[in-house]
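A.,

Following up on our hallway conversation. Structure tokens first:
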């Protein structure tokens, strides 16, 4: 199967934008994923026809709940989850990580260490650094090999053996390098 890149790009209105006659280049995908026209149209339809508080007895709320249920089931099917109940949506990765860090932070104490990587997007580093500052935790940094763009697993083992690491916030896939990590 051959993909027609021009046809695919035409489905994403933001990719047609230009600055001083030059096409924009989007490098921070987590900071604002570009979406195809069909997604924009579905969002517009939702906002016009079913935008409502959830759990209400009135028609708009019931329809909105159905949209959410279908979205959860669709993601469960895509990810091969056992149940749609395993799927959680949030505003964005950074906001979700902040919430998770605050929840996990209740289990940590001054002197505990968190392992972070030099490969991660700020959305998975910033929330943990705030927690480190607030609780007096330590940070241990895991580097990556500059030739293979993979974690140095020997260094990781050493960090775990020689420090009081209670949490490792490690990415599976790097948006920076494209690496799929062996985690």
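Then the amino acids I'd put at each of the 183 positions:
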């Amino acid at each position: 199967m051959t993909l027609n890149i021009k046809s695919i790009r035409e489905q994403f209105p933001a990719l047609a934008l230009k600055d001083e006659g030059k096409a924009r280049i989007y490098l921070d995908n987590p900071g604002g994923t570009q979406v195809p026209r069909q997604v924009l149209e579905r969002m517009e339809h939702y906002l016009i026809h079913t935008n409502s508080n959830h759990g209400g007895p009135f028609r708009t709320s019931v329809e909105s709940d159905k949209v959410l249920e279908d979205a959860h089931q669709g993601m469960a099917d895509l990810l091969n989850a056992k149940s749609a109940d395993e799927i959680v949506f949030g505003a964005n990765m950074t906001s979700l990580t902040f919430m998770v860090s605050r929840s996990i932070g209740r289990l940590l104490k001054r002197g505990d260490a968190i392992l972070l990587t030099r490969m991660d997007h700020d959305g998975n580093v910033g929330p943990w650094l705030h927690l480190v500052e607030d609780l007096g935790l330590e940070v241990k940094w895991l580097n990556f090999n500059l030739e293979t763009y993979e974690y140095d697993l020997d260094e990781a083992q050493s960090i775990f053996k020689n420090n009081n690491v209670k949490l490792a916030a490690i990415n599976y896939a790097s948006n920076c390098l494209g690496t799929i990590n062996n985690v």
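Residues 12-86 form one domain. Curious whether your intuition agrees with the design.

B.
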